[in-house]
Amino acid sequence: MTQLVPGKGIGKLIDAGLVRRITASHIGLNPTAQKQMFSKAIEIELIPQGTLAERIRAGGCGLGGVLTPTGVGTLVAEGKPIHNVAGQDYLIETALRADFALVQAFLADYLGNLAYALTARNFNPIMAMAANTVIAAAEHIVPVGVIAPDHVVTPAPLVDYLIANG
Question: Among 121, 4, 129, 9, which Cα is nearest to 63's?
């Protein structure tokens, strides 16, 4: 998941006014996104980070959604169905899918197998699973076989386009 930093990554699309809707856990680093949200030029759905990750993961796995206690009894719960399991209330949060995923990998091979570094492993792999079209930018692109099979996090069949991040 790319941070919405002005002038970088998805921030460039926001700065250019090319985004009409964002689903994210945080937009605080991008004053342009905040201004567009307050002026109603852009629709922003803010979701707690763990809930966001699980909704994306559910979309990638073909599930309809997830149950979460996060937000029960708050404004977050407005208009959302609640399901009780063993005396505990949970919000039913629908799965998220995307038309496009822009993912950043540390290492890729020529087929599109991806390996990530550090926190890039948090959202990139699940986003690649939950998108119809995956565009991967890699710091290093190597011949097939250089990445050990057990180091591949996102397999090539999920990647539609691979570009060198230069």
Answer: 129
DSSP string, 52-99: HHHHHHHHHHT-SEEEE-TTTTSGGGTT--EEEETTEEEEEEE---EE
3-state helix, strand, coil in the chain (%, to 5): 30, 35, 40
pLDDT tens-digit series, residues 2-59: 467 777 777 888 889 898 998 888 888 788 888 999 999 999 888 999 999 999 999 9
CA distance linking residue 123 with residue 2, whole number of Å: 8
Rounded to two decimals, the pTM is 0.86
- The neighbouring-strand residues paired with 66 are 93
